[in-house]
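Audit log entry. Action: structure prediction of a protein-small molecule complex. Ligand: zinc ion. The ligand was supplied as SMILES and no pocket hint was given, so placement is left entirely to the predictor. Protonation state taken as written. Sequence taken verbatim from the request; no trimming, no tag removal. Recorded inputs:
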Amino acid sequence: MATFIVTKIHKKTAADGSHEHVDGVCTADNLSYTRKQVVDSIGAGHAWVTVADGMTATITPVLCCPKCSLSPYLKTKPESPLKDNLENLDSC
Ligand SMILES: [Zn+2]
């Protein structure tokens, strides 16, 4: 099983314009993956973590976005307010 290091994210505005979604991620080796690819990979047993400012957090799939019904979605655990939170990474 592999461990994927996520350093940046792609964001996309929700259909109603009220918030943004993590639409995809970029890894430390500069590859880009869609949200679904990450969810499927985690389902297959691979580990996905964020690394930023020397902090790290584990990415886990969730049923849907906390602000709408977009499904499936991703979050980091613990839900840090800091840079390692998936939502707070720089865009790629
Ligand atoms: Zn949403």
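Audit: result stored. The chain has a mean pLDDT of 94. The chain has one domain: 3-85.
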